[in-house]
Amino acid sequence: MCYCVLVTSLLAYPLSKQRIIGRRFFLMLIAFTLIFNGGLIPTFLVVQQTGLINTTWAMVIPTLVTTFYFFIMKTFFEGLPEELEDAAKIDGSNYLGILLRIVLPLSMPVMATIGLFIAVGQWNSFFDALIYLNDRDMFPLQIHLRNIVIANSAAAQTEVRDGEEMIIMETVKYATIMFATLPILFTYPFIQKYFVQGAMIGSVKG
């Protein structure tokens, strides 16, 4: 999640400035990916050719930047006062220092909102792991949860298990589901105040 938010902010901040040469061209290229996607097979071939198969980076790099989150963050950066950056330049700060010391601290609402969306998406993701990971020891929790649910569904359709064993299997399944939701449930209260502000981005004008 941290990697995604950091890389997205590093891309959105410079492209939020009107003075950047070629800004319109790069924005059109990024927007193009919202309409057209390479597809599953080309993406898998790229990951395979780069040697990322069966590595943790195969779960990180292909989803490092999401175009939708990029445009949300860029819109937020465009609404920040230019006077703050001008004052930082007068004090001798460079663009990276302005981003890290001024822009990002003021952008906690959008950072928390996008971070929560990314965290929920990554936490619930299991399809990428099925494609890119071969080692069972590297499987995320959602893969094991999926296997438990499928195993219980298959067992429910057979008559080889008695009632008591089926109750145990159902209990394990629902306990696993509850366990898988706890990290997100515990994370939300800490960023709720930022999330409410971030969800209102663009809703008020003037």
From TrEMBL:
GO terms for biological process: transmembrane transport. One of its GO terms (cellular component) is plasma membrane. The chain crosses the membrane at residues 25-45, 57-77, 98-120, 174-191. The keyword Transport applies. Its main location: membrane. It is found in: Cell membrane. Residues 1-190 form the ABC transmembrane type-1 domain. It holds the Pfam family BPD_transp_1. It is a multi-pass membrane protein. Keywords: Cell membrane, Membrane, Transmembrane, Transmembrane helix, Transport. InterPro entries: MetI-like, MetI-like_sf. SUPFAM superfamilies: MetI-like. Belongs to the binding-protein-dependent transport system permease family. PANTHER family: ABC TRANSPORTER PERMEASE PROTEIN MG189-RELATED-RELATED (PTHR43744), POLYGALACTURONAN_RHAMNOGALACTURONAN TRANSPORT SYSTEM PERMEASE PROTEIN YTCP (PTHR43744:SF9). This is Carbohydrate ABC transporter permease. It comes from Paenibacillus sabuli.
